[in-house]
Amino acid sequence: MDDNKALTDFNSEIDVAFRTAWQSGKGGDENWSKLLNGYGAKALSDEEKGYLSESSMKIATGAYPIELRRVYESIIDKYRPAASSSPKLSEALNNFNLDVRVKEYYQKIKPFSGLGDIFKNAAAGTAKYSEGLQKEKQSTMKCKNCGAPRLDEMQYDACLFCGSKLFEKA
Ligand SMILES: [Zn+2]
Fold first, then answer.
1. Across residues 43-47, what is the average pLDDT?
2. If you measure from the C-alpha of residue 87 to the centroid of ligand 1, how many angstroms do you get, rounded to a whole number?
3. Which residues pair with 143 in a beta bridge?
4. So where are the chain's domains?
5. Counting Cβ atoms within 10 Å, is residue 70 exposed (0-12), middle (13-18) or buried (19+)?
6. Is the pTM of this model over 0.85?
7. How large is the average pLDDT for residues 19-31?
8. Cα(89) to centroid of ligand 1, in Å?
9. How far apart are CA 5 and CA 114, in angstroms?
10. Dihedral angle computed from the Cα positions of residues 71, 77, 78 and 84, in that order, rounded to the nearest 10 degrees
11. Which residues pair with 142 in a beta bridge?
């Protein structure tokens, strides 16, 4: 494969994934599911989405960051073999920082101000919401990349919100 073409193709697939996630309705939509399935990337389960929607990690729109990360990972895997004959592509793959790229995406989809949501939820006084807060208070670890609390009762190695494996003491 031509050196420049491999790099251009890689960048354009990353770009399409980013825009499809960003333009998706909150928590994903049909277009996003199609793209996710096309790459064989794992979608969040309904239970996982339930936890996330109750957590302090609010999103205003778009697919969940961890799903975009999984698509990015699939794209990187897809282009890995071509990298041996393309130094430019190889460099792009090695410099692609998943934590940073997913966090950039999160900045685009998070609510302009988290306060609106907090007041709305507090006023509604839903048991679910305070239950969610309780869980977060009990959590002793949080994600170093996006700040999401790690839910102690759930078993997972990577942040449920952004997919980062870096945790630190809250
Ligand atoms: Zn995270």
1. 94
2. 31
3. 167
4. 3-169
5. buried
6. no
7. 97
8. 27
9. 42
10. 150
11. 149, 168
